[in-house]
């Protein structure tokens, strides 16, 4: 196979970027207490322009088109992100997406999504976005006020009433084509079945149940001080106080309800990706399996960065030193951080490479492997949870396919 341009990635060509996360606004009208952007190790957002300029938008569109043409991509995804993207005028967002589509090579489909907290979504804004073919992804933590207690504005006022209005608006049949789905960060202290049922009541087409962004140095809620040397491929992790696998327990409760349903009302990404990896089918990368991750971020000033969840590791962890006005996205493919994320098993810790779950787990999310002083060559901080979830899903799958 083709080797790369001196990047240190051995034997394989780089995987082109297919998802472009564009930070259209660097500020947010909420102050969610677990946010990896504003309550993490990296406070670089303070030095970013509040909004991307028209010139920056033009450069981003040009570079996306250039990348798609270079790699003959049949489709790309553009995610309008922030901060809160709806702090930017929807017509500005629509104009940018129109420009990306106009610049894209013939035959390349551009899917555009705005990932919003929903508080600024109104019928007029939704219609304006829909007119430009922009779908809406809604971020919330459950379908009731008590699930969203950490979603507050800067004065500490609850965001739930506005979020509920947005969810009801998107669920209307006339807006169904604009509803991309719901992103929900897991709270291990919540009742998983109650949260799941409450989300179903909002009638989303898809659910993305997310593990909180964390690592061995900045541990997620519910995980104690056990180090990566304690983590292994079993169903529990030595040294964890209380419940040894709180996130697996939460997810398994939801999986069992979802899997047993006569008609699955919603797609759940984490389960579908796990099933795909178990069945040796392609995965999107970054969650399960060893398929290379293929997303890149552009900040409001035009800086090209790695995925922004890396900001939970240390200041500058996501930086590449590249800028859309001066560099093609291909230059980012040779960045050591991107190379490591695309290196598959070669970039994993010895314990991961020796693990029987390697092909399914893939070492877990790259961000979750970080440990100060030791970099990213560690098992995931969620190692035990992932192992327990995979074993459980595998058993359910065997019961289904075995006569």
Spell out the key features of this protein.
403 residues, alpha/beta, TIM Barrel, 10-stranded mixed beta sheet, 31% helix, 13% strand, globular, disordered N terminus, oxidoreductase activity, S-adenosyl-L-methionine, rSAM, metal-binding
What share of residues are in beta strands? 5-15%
Query: Which CATH architecture of the domain at 19-210 and 295-341 is right?
Result: Alpha-Beta Barrel
The CATH superfamily name of the domain at 19-210 and 295-341 is Aldolase class I
The CATH first-level class of the domain at 19-210 and 295-341 comes to: Alpha Beta
How much helicity do the residues have?
25-40%
If strands are numbered along the chain, what order do they take across the biggest sheet?
Answer: 7-6-5-4-3-2-1-8-9-10
Largest sheet: 10 strands, mixed
Oligomeric form = single chain
Distance between the termini: 41 Å
- Helix count equals 12
Q: What are the secondary-structure elements, in order, as H or E?
A: EHEHEHEHEHEHEHEEEHHHHH
The radius of gyration over CA amounts to: 21 Å
Shape: globular
Estimate the mean pLDDT confidence: 91
Structural class: alpha/beta
- Using the coordinates shown, work out and report the CATH topology of the domain at 19-210 and 295-341: TIM Barrel
Give the low-confidence spans.
Answer: 1-10, 233-241
> How many extended strands?
10
